[in-house]
Amino acid sequence: MTYFKPIKILCLLLFTAILFSCQKQKSEKQGQPKKVAVIVSSLNNPWFVVLAETAANHAIELGFEATIFDSQNNTALETDHFENAISSGYDAILFNPTDADGSIANVRIAKKAEIPVFCMDREINATDAATSQILSDSYAGCVAIGKYFVEKLNKSGKYVEILGLVGDNNTWSRSKGFHSVVDNYPELQMVAQQNADFDRNKAMEVMESILQVHPDIKGVFCGNDGMAMGAYQALVAAGKAEQVMVFGFDGASDVITSIEQKKILATGMQFPKLIARTAANYALEYFNGKRDFAQKVPVTVEMVNQENVHDYEAYGSDE
Predict the structure, then answer these.
(1) Cα angle, residue 245 at apex, residues 243 and 202 outer, rounded to 5°
(2) pLDDT tens track for 174-211
(3) Neighbour order of strands in the sheet with 219-222
(4) Which pTM was predicted?
(5) Which molecular function terms from Gene Ontology are attached (predicted)?
(6) Which of the four pLDDT bands, split at 50, 70 and 90, describes residue 316?
(7) Longest CA–CA separation in the chain, Å
């Protein structure tokens, strides 16, 4: 019995030392700024650059440290970012998911680590993982675009739809909103529906291929502005830019300019700065003790066309 006493004492001393170290680290962290990770699906799209930079800059304005992580539309890389954020002691995550289903596990990992996650623009297919999801009302925005599309095409003619990422709920919310209107007009015929992953170059290639089979289309509805610009480039190259009307979604800088120049017909103006600032503000409220956040917070989308474009600025306002 006497033989085990020194070991017990040593274990007790070791446990006390670890406990003291953890308490010291916690105490030291309490005197430091909160750390916020801004994890976005891709920085290859200017819209997401605005979202990420606004979120990080506003977090800094609120007194936090902020770091941007680019997932490059890869859920595995996104997982690495979450693990890094958790192990590095980040206190909150402002998150733009890569995939509505594939990103759920990452959010749950953060929740288990007691780190709040505020989704920005893109949602995940779970209502018990993220602390809150601040989302553009893509469906309603595309209902408005659908009505304008029907009007400009005079309720008849062949058209094309170019979809975004198939794993992103925004892709289908936009498509469903658009079709909730357009499908009521039987003389409007969709001759092709292909995805281009929200990528400008892919959309240009898709449009080039479609034009070879369907040279007589009257309109193109694209799930984001990058794809709208890619489709327009293909139409210019084919000498059809004057015959085919292009509609986008986002409110990106180059499309706003193209609408002013009467090249693109319309877009759905999202407000990434507002979304990003709201997410950062929610993080502050969480740090101050709030826990009862709405699971989904819709942000209005407004249609911009050649008649009202001068009332808007690229990517909307952050007010």
Answers:
(1) 105
(2) 999 999 999 999 999 999 999 999 999 999 999 999 99
(3) 188-195, 157-163, 219-222, 245-247, 266-269, 302-305
(4) 0.84
(5) carbohydrate binding
(6) confident
(7) 96
Closest CA to 175 of 158, 193, 157, 150: 193
- Per-residue model confidence as pLDDT tens digits over 158-182: 999 999 999 999 999 999 999 999 9
Q: Of 143, 140, 54, which Cα lies nearest the Cα of 96?
A: 54
* 3-state helix/strand/coil string of 27-67: HHHHCCCCEEEEEECCCCCHHHHHHHHHHHHHHHHCCCEEE
The rounded distance, in Å, linking the Cα atoms of 186 and 148 is 16
What domains can you pick out in the chain, each with its CATH number?
A: 35-135+272-299 (3.40.50.2300), 138-269 (3.40.50.2300)
Q: How far is CA 16 from the centre of its chain?
A: 46
Burial class (CB within 10 angstroms; exposed 0-12, middle 13-18, buried 19+) of 317: exposed
Contact 130, 279 (CB under 8 A): no
